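Table S2 (text version). Query chain:
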Amino acid sequence: MENANLKQETKELLIRQPEWAPILISCVQFSRESADGVLDGSAVRNRAQMFGWSLVPLLTLGILEKAGPARKHGHVGINRMRDVQAVENALTELGYDVHAKLPGDFFAQHEKWLHRTAMSAMARSA
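Corresponding structure-token output:
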């Protein structure tokens, strides 16, 4: 069952600060991809290409909860989303595509590399 308060708080965050959308989308995607729902903070930021962003505000809001000890000298948190469905619904209702490939998505990067490689090969053969 979805947490209605968390959904509303997530929507309010996105309305006030829409720059959080890529981080939240990355969190939802990693939660869905992970067998145990655990998120590595650096992986979340990398996929969203938002380096240097702290996930602490999402912990404070209750969107994330600690799922393990910090790594890398206490700087990278291991977290879990409290209610993935509530956050996903908030994003969707505000028009965000939770299935979109984000800039740091490995597969999106790989497809760009393949495209550049193919274009270079075509240019060399012309």
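Notes on Table S2: The chain has six helices and three strands. Residues 106-125 form the longest helix (20 residues).
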